[in-house]
Specification:
Blueprint: H1 4-12, E1 14-25, E2 29-32, E3 39-52, E4 58-61, E5 64-68, E6 74-77, E7 85-87, E8 99-102, E9 110-119, H2 124-128, E10 135-138, H3 141-155, H4 161-180, H5 189-194, H6 198-207, H7 215-221, H8 226-237, H9 241-257, H10 264-270, H11 276-287, H12 291-297
Parallel strand pairs: 1-8, 2-7
Antiparallel strand pairs: 1-9, 2-6, 3-4, 3-5, 3-6, 3-9, 5-10
Helix pairs in contact: 1-4, 3-4, 6-7, 7-8, 10-11
Length: 298
């Protein structure tokens, strides 16, 4: 049976763009405007504050890892009050060496390895909406090691660099997200997979996307009544079950259409539609254009 988390990471098609070392000392603070692309950092030594828009302020300590799948605006600073320096990551040139904030020279109060990457998938928005907005992991050495490897690989020009970076970022994402999964996770895929009743149904939806699922069948997989399953799924995942299934089918269909070597009838069958015409009508309603046009433009 397919693993939903691995499927989503593979479809996101992450690739690393940039990584850097960041340090701060004394009175310092930076305010980054909304970026939209995923970013990450690992605290190597020391501590600092991180305030992501719409979320409680976090105190980051050595060994912490943070992932922002869509990177809204945020402020990072030391512990002394300060007016943060404003930075627009979309226009600010990428630095070539270590970025230092606050007091120059001497031992920093905090040092981090950070960076950002992009999702090549045109469905990144749909998939990212299933993930937590802020992933904060404490004390997982593997994540720090992975970030360090990303930094070393991105700064070199060794053969196979892009392939290695792509694989490292995939592992980094999976490791961070599966460490975050649990009942305390916000509504979305991770919280759904952590629910012992919902997880079997979600895995079936992903593993047998072509099956003509009914609410009764999915509820049975979860050992719940239809009404209890609907309420629990919607509350936990953030979407009603059949709406989630439709969205996932369209994501899979788009991925198949972009390959250009699969006919429309086969794509329809693979995502649970009895005919190409029925699939085309559903695709047009959901995506806003016929699948044939989408395939050409992709």
């Amino acid at each position: 049976m397919n693993d939903p988390l691995s499927e989503i990471i593979a479809l996101l098609q992450p690739r690393t763009v940039f990584s850097k070392t960041i340090s701060g000392a004394g009175r310092w603070g930076v305010r980054y405007s909304n970026f939209g692309q995923p970013s990450f950092c690992a605290v190597i030594e020391g501590s600092c504050l991180l305030a992501v828009d719409g979320h409680p302020t976090l105190t980051l300590e050595a060994g912490d890892f943070v992932l922002l799948p869509a990177t809204p605006g945020f402020t990072m600073s030391g512990f002394e009050p300060v007016t943060p320096e404003r930075i627009d990551p979309k226009v600010t040139p990428a630095p070539t060496g270590e970025v230092r904030h606050g007091t120059r020279g001497g031992k920093p109060d905090v040092r981090l390895l950070g960076g950002y990457f992009v999702f090549d998938s045109p469905d990144a928005g749909v998939l990212v909406s299933l993930l937590p907005a802020v992933v904060h992991v404490r004390g997982v050495e593997r994540l720090t090691v992975l970030v360090r490897l990303v930094g070393e690989e991105s700064s070199g020009l060794r053969p196979g660099r892009d392939l290695v970076l792509g694989r490292l970022v995939e592992v980094l994402l999976i490791e961070a997200l599966r460490t975050t999964s649990g009942e305390d996770a916000p509504p979305g895929l991770l919280r759904g997979l952590a629910d012992a009743r919902l997880a079997p149904a979600m895995k079936q939806m992903h593993g047998q996307v072509a099956r003509s699922w009914t609410m009764a069948q999915l509820a049975k997989k979860a050992a719940l009544s239809r009404s209890a399953f609907f309420k629990r799924f919607t509350r936990t995942v953030g979407l009603p079950p059949m709406e989630y299934l439709l969205a996932w089918r369209m994501v899979v269909a788009k991925d198949l259409l972009r390959r250009h070597d699969i006919g429309l009838t086969e794509v329809a069958e693979r995502v649970g539609y009895s005919s190409a015409s029925t699939f085309s009508a559903a695709f047009n309603r959901h995506v806003g254009q016929p699948p044939s046009r989408y395939a050409r433009e992709s």
